[in-house]
Amino acid sequence: MRAAASHETERVARGEDTDSESASLNLPEEPLAAMNLPPLRGTRESLVRQNERAEQDGLLRVKDNDDLVTLRRQGKLVALPELASMHVDSRLPANRRYCRTWTGRFLSDLARVHYERFHKPLQINSAVRTVEYQRHLLRINGNAAPAEGDVASPHLTGEAVDIAKKGLTPSEVAWMRAYLLPLQTAGKIDVAEEFQQSCFHISVYKSYVASHTDFASSPKSSALLASGVR
After folding, report:
1. Could you tell me the pTM of the whole model?
2. Domain 2-226, what fold?
């Protein structure tokens, strides 16, 4: 069953056509957790790639609050979506509730299909950060990513967000993995499933919208269908 789902995922990532009947693989809708999809663990190579992709897209790290304000005025950072299907952690400061436009599009797509399936909102725990703040974070959290270098935190460019895992059921966690994996395979995002902070760290690349095939809603190229999740 998992091998078949993996094969279908690879077909979608290559852009090959799938029909809804074959892509569903006749897998049961409940319980999704029984699919036993492995965690999407981050690696050093993935962190290096996230920094390289940001550099290729011409994205600079946000230095400080003045830099943040400038990018917002220029429209290069947009407010996180506040929807019935997605809300922002109340503890996140107002000046860090921003992201890149394509990251906002990804979040809206993800929130919509998750809400249709589970009738619950997702929560955003973190979005853009400044180099100044990341240095402060390093002083109080030894597990935080650096503020400089080839493995610097991807939050510094505004492409990355953290989606809370706390409060998600095992079926929702399995659903998230099934939704995110084909997008990662297709090079649209990179995911690191974190356990100490209990979140999905997701870097969204500009190509998500540049060649967007609407993974979230298309009946023939859905990330969910690719993994056999209805």
Report:
1. 0.80
2. Muramoyl-pentapeptide Carboxypeptidase; domain 2 (3.30.1380)
